[in-house]
């Protein structure tokens, strides 16, 4: 690719300056004005919003970058995506998409005239309008930036397998202090210049956060350059406080950056991948709140943290401030920007891209438009068959790994697997039969499965994995994230933000198309943390998600390999969900054949006849369970009870999809009361062995009429490094404690005391045995059903 | 301070090598051996543990560092603390504290003889023994490292206000990939060389994680150096694969590092603080699993990720592997290390510090030993007085800020306040009357409140704030963390790890003294996110903590300024807790005078007589609430009901400490059933207005006999940028919806339909008003009680 010498003409500078004034004017208008958008009338208090809510400080910088990206798009016909790290600068993105026309394409009610401008201004941060952040409502956005730190990993996620896409990612120097952002700079070790696109990070060094200077703005320039060299980038420095000078500097910097990106890509695509490239980045040092009020109340505002939000407020209480606003707005010369009908009159067309290349029209930012459904192999081909139930021991996740490998093989360029250095540990290594791990850093001779075009992505940062995955999904592709159950809590808050994005985009924004679901496999779970112990024992992620919109959340506990396969297929087909699958990686007993597994998973909950007594219409006891390990214990307890009390009628219930327990008014997954009561009867004690915290079940069944019959065993925050069975005993989720509780809840058991004593004796033997031998009792380890 | 030229003698090298061999032998012994600790007998299968659980890879490096730190302690009499980032290398820390004698001081049962060695070996990662990680059980530790990423921020937290302490912090190159760790390098911009100690980071570049190379080991050396220069450090490079050469290099590096640290401190302490110093760090590049098996099954182990855990396992299934273990163990020449009674015979005494300086004896690592209780001012001095209830509008957190300022003034060098750039936004800025913000980076002329000796610590990384705070607490000091409610979820998992640490250290380890509590103020809460919106609306942190050991967790919802003051004092007095206080920063109505506030907070829950009907022995309805905004709505609803139904008997209940609702068997805070039923009666509908998710209350009262009477209003994940009252309406927590629900739950209300229609009309008026005016109805905004 050749780039013209881009020395801007003085006309260009003037035009760009007008373009920027236009964007800034429309930004300030959104923050302040309820009416009189063109300042045709003298500004009055009733033209000003009663509650002034928004963020000015970052906005002029975001505008400047948008404009210069548009210039380079026009120049080079590049496909660009704008990722707004300082997402609180919402006015900038609304302004720019309005100017280029993409806003009106998405919201025909907001036309490019006086009425449209008035509506645009009023709706911002106004009840019934749009949020003040770059929320899903904004065309062209895949990153809200409400909770800071994820812009860069989202940008990288967006460009994987999009070789022609450049994600221009604005990183605020405030956001740059967060952990997730600090880690994500290293994503450049995972970009394949042949098959992936590129990220152009733009560090906006405006110097201040809410109320403090930023760290990166207060270290020497050479130290900052070193930092980014150390992260593997070649920084291009742009610095000015002169509105005329800045455009030339920006144009040069963007030319250089895009030219370097294209050269790197061209070279790799022509000659093959050799070494990790050093990608360009831009450091843009400009004043915070640039072009806004210089001071207010004798305190500095421009170039200071005081410009972060609304530079001056409470005009209704201080009408004299109206003049400040008037002066500020008029400094952009609206009469030169708009004609009398509110149409943009300044001639900036030469810097506005064709519609198909406008960033607000990017199909990548409305990823569902580009989604190609996965070609999914038949899970039956991966079926674990067995002669008798509860005999065959298989690692369920290993089988799932084989299935995922087949999915990978059928869907190259459309599917990736993510994990924090745990993919093999989680037994998904069959994937390496069909692909490798993404790796463009240095390689050693004895390395295995590391390739620039590998499709399993591992970095020891859960935040970066999650951010990449979200970026990949938001741009319409598919994926799978496996993680130790305890450590997925590290990204609790990221999952919250994604759930909020999904809720809003699926329920409130008609132009946003459904995107593939965010699928988690949580394994190495609380019950099998053999060498790790208490710090690795936490099943709380599901509780966290259960607080989010239940239409978005699905929580699955497949009890064996075949059910895991069925659920695996199901989640890969779904859209606009966060699916959590909890399943252990250790070899465990198998219970259902494929046909049964399919039926069971379709219902999400069911009675297992083969584990129940013959007459289950009127049982004496219900033994229920959710989770692979609890299922084993519940079955073992059932077997003990069958032996001790042959006449006891036990109904055995297994729950795969625990949202079936929830109130049907909150989620479509919830059983009706009739269905629920048919399964759980009305007057029978229910011993429920659950994988996670008992409170999770309590809250789901709170409104069910028979909920007082439930006696829930689960994780009670007791743990250490010990044997698998001892972990269950510590939390009273083991078979013996289940039997004890069943006996206590049943009435009229003649030999109650004897049975309790017998169970206590078994627990006593267990404790002695493990302290002496360091291993579980053989009778417990070798339990089989038949 | 002068340092001798530390060129080691060849005898020194030999001794250090033996010392290292000793530590490595004791490490391998812990991982593998059940018996025969001195290899006096030929190694048999029954000497080997049945379940081999632990991590070898990082261990020899941790040992090497420990030994060389001991050398420098002996040499310079420095006070050092060892912070183990790769905390899964538990055997190293157990081995080294055993060798120096501090382990036996803490656990007299483990003597330095054959029996003690046998016990030490057996207990490791064994039921009834010690966890495999550097858990609270290990003397000298303040950092477990189970969940990676917090070592460096813990280390910095430990040295604030400890001018003589050096925290040597080992950072694994795996951990270095995490977000929290990547951000925490910048902590050096917050170290005051005069009043704080120093952190010596030691990046252990052993090249591999669980199953992958690390990023930092696969970038060019100059890039890595640039990265750390960019982070503001001067790296000292130590690299070798030669066991004889390494000691000299390590000694030189540690000499240089400690010398530089002391020079920096001396200069600042003599001449005053001028510029931020460039602190030294060490990059130690040595093979992973060094001195272990070179290969296994023809695959590389030493210097490879395959050494990460137990290099070869299942000896019982493969008895031929016994020889490999025997060879490995004997490579350390145990016969030279121990005498026949298992006493250490190799003469390493010259490198073992005096007991008072041994890292395993550091009082800083058992911080409660050093805790000086805070001198607390009388909250009555900060009392908000008022003539009539519900008239005075005051920002509760602003008053708390004045109290915290007084606390700060009385407890310099013992108290710090932490926050992610939100201290002023959260209205705690009275603190700046008595102190400044910690800042040692560059300053500009117009900066305010930035000083090297400031005691308010702000960085836009919740992880770093939390890590600093934990490190400060774990070393026995006090603090306070204020944060937007939504974004505290970013450190959910860190709070989990701290809760686990507190549970174990307070309930299971008798030598660990109580440490001051971790106190959170969550403000800018879900109901007042005026300019931020949905991404900032999440009250889920309390749900997350409620899953942890209830003896460790306290959750407070003070309804006004005086109650906030009382709770503030209470949490600052407490130990071994995680206290969460949720209170808004906006000016709100005041309800209780100081005397009432004290009584109310002492009970944690209470009937407000003045808001109740005259006859509350047998009420018709209970109006209950927890949280400042819900209290206003519940009172407003009560007032509406009083007016509409003058004969209706309403009992008004406010909950400050929501753990009072919990089952008393799970927490000492829980009301007995008798107390609970006295407050909530038995047959009366209870309308409960709650600050957070209703599920939080459901799970707490699940076992209370009257729980079916509770009708809980709270946050239902509905939100956007809108008016404060509209947020309540969106979630049906507003006064009108509370009244509607009360009417529906009450029987025999004659004019039921009229009242419902009236409330619906008010809601309709509200919606119209906000969409038109962008503000709340005056009647709602100006509600007063009297």
So what's the CATH class of the largest domain in chain A?
A: Alpha Beta
Q: Could you tell me the mean pLDDT of chain A?
A: 95
- Give the oligomeric state: homodimer
- The shape of chain A is elongated
- Count of helices of chain A? 24
Q: Tell me the CATH topology of the largest domain in chain A.
A: Rossmann fold
What is the CA-based Rg of chain A, rounded? Answer: 30 Å
Strand residue content of chain A: 5-15%
Alpha-beta content class of chain A: alpha/beta
What is the name of the CATH architecture of the largest domain in chain A? 3-Layer(aba) Sandwich
What is the count of structural domains of chain A? 3
**Can you list the strand order of the major beta sheet of chain A?**
12-9-13-14-16-15
Question: Span from first to last CA of chain A?
Answer: 70 Å
Major beta sheet summary of chain A: 6 strands, parallel
Description of the structure:
- The structure is a homodimer of 786-residue chains.
- Chain A is an alpha/beta fold and 786 residues long.
- Chain A has 3 domains: 10-353, Thiamin diphosphate (ThDP)-binding fold, Pyr/PP domains (Rossmann fold, 3-Layer(aba) Sandwich), CATH 3.40.50; 379-588, Rossmann fold, CATH 3.40.50; 604-781, Rossmann fold (3-Layer(aba) Sandwich), CATH 3.40.50.
- Helix content of chain A is 36%, strand content 13%.
- The first copy, chain A, is built from 24 helices and 22 strands.
- In chain A, the strands form 6 sheets. Chain A has a 6-stranded parallel beta sheet, sandwiched between helices. In chain A, strands 1-2-3-5-4 form a 5-stranded parallel beta sheet, sandwiched between helices. Chain A has a 5-stranded mixed beta sheet with strand order 18-20-19-21-22, with helices on both faces.
- In chain A, strand 6 and strand 7 (299-300) form a beta hairpin.
- The longest helix of chain A is centred in the N-terminal third of the chain and has 27 residues, at 245-271.
- Chain A starts with 9 loop residues before the first helix and ends in a 5-residue tail after the last helix.
């Amino acid at each position: 690719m050749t780039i013209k010498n881009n020395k801007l003409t003085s006309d260009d500078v003037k035009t760009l300056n007008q373009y920027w004034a236009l964007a800034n004017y429309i930004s300030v208008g959104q923050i302040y004005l309820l009416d009189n958008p063109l300042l045709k009338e003298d500004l009055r208090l009733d033209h000003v919003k009663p509650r002034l809510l928004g963020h000015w400080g970052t906005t002029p910088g975001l505008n400047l970058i948008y404009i210069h990206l548009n210039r380079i798009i026009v120049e080079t016909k590049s496909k660009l995506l704008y990722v707004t790290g300082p997402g609180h600068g919402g006015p900038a993105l609304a302004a720019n998409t309005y100017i280029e026309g993409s806003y009106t394409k998405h919201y025909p009610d907001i036309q490019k005239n006086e009425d449209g401008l008035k509506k645009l201004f009023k709706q911002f941060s106004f009840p019934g309008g749009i949020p003040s952040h770059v929320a899903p409502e904004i065309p062209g956005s895949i990153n809200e930036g409400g909770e800071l730190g994820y812009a860069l990993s989202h940008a990288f996620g967006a460009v994987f397998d999009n070789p022609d896409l450049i994600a221009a990612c604005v990183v605020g120097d405030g956001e740059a202090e967060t952990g997730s952002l600090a880690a994500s700079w290293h994503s450049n070790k995972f970009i394949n210049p042949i098959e992936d696109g590129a990220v152009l990070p733009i560090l906006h060094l405006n110097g201040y956060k809410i109320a403090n200077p930023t760290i990166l703005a207060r270290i020497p320039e050479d130290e900052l350059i070193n930092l980014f060299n150390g992260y593997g980038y070649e920084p291009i420095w742009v610095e000015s406080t002169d509105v005329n000078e800045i455009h030339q500097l920006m144009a040069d910097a963007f030319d250089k950056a895009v030219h370097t990106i294209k050269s790197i890509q061209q070279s790799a695509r022509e000659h093959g991948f050799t070494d990790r490239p050093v990608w360009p980045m831009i450091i843009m040092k400009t004043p915070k709140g640039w072009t806004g009020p210089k001071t207010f109340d004798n305190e500095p505002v421009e170039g200071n943290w005081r410009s972060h939000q609304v530079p001056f407020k409470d005009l209704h209480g201080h009408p004299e401030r109206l003049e400040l606003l008037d002066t500020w707005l008029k400094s952009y010369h609206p009469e030169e920007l708009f004609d009398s009908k509110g149409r943009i009159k300044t001639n900036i067309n030469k810097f506005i891209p064709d519609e198909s290349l406008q960033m607000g029209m990017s199909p990548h930012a409305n990823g569902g438009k580009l989604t190609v459904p996965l070609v999914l192999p038949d899970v039956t081909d991966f079926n674990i068959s067995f002669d008798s139930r509860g005999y065959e021991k298989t690692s369920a996740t290993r089988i799932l790994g084989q299935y995922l490998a087949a999915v990978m093989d059928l869907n190259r360029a459309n599917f990736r697997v993510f994990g924090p250095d745990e993919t093999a540990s989680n037994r998904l290594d069959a994937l390496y039969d069909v692909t490798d791990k993404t790796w463009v850093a240095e390689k050693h001779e004895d390395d295995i499965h590391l390739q620039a075009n590998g499709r399993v992505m591992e970095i020891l940062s859960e935040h970066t994995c999650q951010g990449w995955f979200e970026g990949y999904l938001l741009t319409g592709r598919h994926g799978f994230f496996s993680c130790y159950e305890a450590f997925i809590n590290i990204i609790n808050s990221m999952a919250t933000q994604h759930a909020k994005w999904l809720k809003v985009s699926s329920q409130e924004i008609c132009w946003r198309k459904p995107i593939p679901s965010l699928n988690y496999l949580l394994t190495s779970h609380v019950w099998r943390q053999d060498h790790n112990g208490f710090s690795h024992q936490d099943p709380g992620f599901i509780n966290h998600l259960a607080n989010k919109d239940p239409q978005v959340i699905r929580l699955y506990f497949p009890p064996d390999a075949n059910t895991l396969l069925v659920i695996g297929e199901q989640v890969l087909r779904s859209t606009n969900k966060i699916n959590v699958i909890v399943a252990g990686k250790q070899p465990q007993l198998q219970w259902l054949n494929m046909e049964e597994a399919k039926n069971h998973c379709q219902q999400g909950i069911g009675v297992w006849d083969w584990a129940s007594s013959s007459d289950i219409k009127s049982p004496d006891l219900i033994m229920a369970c959710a989770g692979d390990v609890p299922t084993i214990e519940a079955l073992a307890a059932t077997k003990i009870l069958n032996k001790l009390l042959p006449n006891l009628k036990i109904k055995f219930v297994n729950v795969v999809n625990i949202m079936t327990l929830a109130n049907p008014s909150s989620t479509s997954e919830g059983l009706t009361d009739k269905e629920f009561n048919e399964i759980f009867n009305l007057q029978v004690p229910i011993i429920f062995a659950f994988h996670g915290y008992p409170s999770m079940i309590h809250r789901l069944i709170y409104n069910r009429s028979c909920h007082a019959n439930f006696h829930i065993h689960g994780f009670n925050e007791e743990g250490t490094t010990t044997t698998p069975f001892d972990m269950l005993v510590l939390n009273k989720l083991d078979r013996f404690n289940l039997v004890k509780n069943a006996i206590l809840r049943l009435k009229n058991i003649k030999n109650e005391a004897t049975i309790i004593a017998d169970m206590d004796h078994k627990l006593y033997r267990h404790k002695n045995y493990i302290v002496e031998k360091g291993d579980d009792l053989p009778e417990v380890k070798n339990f089989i059903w038949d």
